[in-house]
Design goal:
It is built from 15 helices and no strands. It has one domain. The protein is mainly α and 357 residues long. The relative contact order is 0.14.
């Protein structure tokens, strides 16, 4: 059974990681027998999760999210999203039972090689399969949007940074994708690794690792774009203001329908065509949707994992994910969700690592 568990966990992770950008909808007739049945069953699995060997913080977070289905500003949307939360919670519990993550690492490395090959073909105009030999690629990697694709690569990077070659490829791809957020994410991971690994030069190396992304963002003009009325900083500010007004949260999955209605016109005066259906900051979106109780419980779970880690590689991977979540929305991507959960399960495994002086 121990040998089967990694395979059971890897199959859905690889399947979703290779999923191209698609649109799908989960419909349900309200007050139908199926709707009522799913409500009762979801509540059952939420409380059954209390008996799994995972952090109590995560258990309480799942229960709180079930409660939020009843107090949400959009109960139908919240409850529909709660089904996916239950699946993710049990998937994480399955991953915690993995004793050897070698097969998982090899699978993610294989996915990464596929992405690297696609990017090379696309950048040099050799891609006649996906982009039909166009000079400007329509598809970047396996996902069309460069920013989203680079964010996904950062998620993969959490599992890849155990070799210098992968570090080099990740740094190169983050610059090639022209995404300041991805450069910052990889820079934060590199700074964390250097800080833990080389104590004598830690300050100098860490400063250089952080300074490069800042200069890159300045050169690309991303700082000025973020400060515009239709940029990210005003969206962050408004999201925080709305979260404070409703500390219990608006309900999971509600941001994409509530925020554009509540303040879309105010934010988008300079860019009417821009719809902020995600915050481009997972931490703020989690606060908006689950409120302060849910955010505290989630952070408590993550802190319980971090405080046990002594491995510089794992800490660097967590830094990449944390910063990536602060500038992108990887937890809202079906390609990334299972990889993030598996990496958190991997980090929850205690290891005795000696840090070199």
């Amino acid at each position: 059974m121990k040998k089967i568990i990694p395979i059971l966990a890897i199959i859905p992770m690889v399947f979703f990681a290779l999923t191209p950008p698609i649109e799908f909808a989960l419909d349900c007739t309200i007050n139908s027998t199926f709707w009522l049945w799913m409500t009762f069953v979801s509540g059952f699995f939420a409380f059954l999760f209390l008996y799994h060997k995972v952090s109590v913080w995560l258990k309480l977070f799942v229960i709180w999210c079930f409660v939020s289905c009843f107090i949400s500003k959009a109960p139908y949307m919240t409850f529909t999203m709660f089904w996916s939360l239950i699946i993710c919670s049990y998937y994480y519990a399955l991953c915690t039972k993995i004793e050897d993550f070698t097969l998982a690492k090899k699978s993610i490395q294989a996915i990464f090689f596929v992405l690297v090959l696609l990017i090379i073909m696309q950048l040099f105009g050799l891609d006649t399969l996906l982009n039909f030999n166009q000079k400007t690629p329509v598809i970047f990697a396996t996902i069309g949007n460069r920013m989203i694709a680079s964010s996904f690569i950062c998620v993969l990077g959490a599992f890849l940074i155990f070799t210098p070659l992968n570090w080099g490829l990740l740094i190169l791809i983050s610059f090639v994708s022209w995404s300041s957020g991805s450069v910052l994410s990889i820079g934060a991971g590199l700074a964390t690794y250097l800080w833990m690994k080389f104590r004598r030069l830690r300050i100098i190396l860490a400063i250089l690792a952080i300074l490069a992304p800042i200069v890159f963002a300045y050169k690309t003009g991303d700082f000025s774009k973020a400060a515009l009325r239709a940029g990210r900083l005003p969206v962050y500010k408004k999201t925080l203001e709305l979260s404070i007004k409703r500390p219990q949260g608006y309900g999971i999955g509600t941001y994409k329908i509530l925020f554009p209605v509540m303040c879309g016109r105010e934010i988008n005066k300079q860019n009417p065509g821009k719809m902020w259906d995600t915050t481009h900051n997972d931490w703020l979106q989690i606060l908006f949707e689950t409120g302060f109780p849910g955010t505290i419980l989630l952070l408590g779970w993550l802190v319980s994992i971090v405080r046990k880690i002594r491995d510089p590689v794992k800490l660097a991977g967590l830094a990449i994910l944390a910063v990536n979540m602060a500038v992108h929305f990887p937890t809202r991507m079906i390609q990334s969700a299972f990889i993030i959960l598996m990496f958190l399960a991997y980090c929850s495994k205690e290891e005795n690592i000696c840090v070199k002086e």
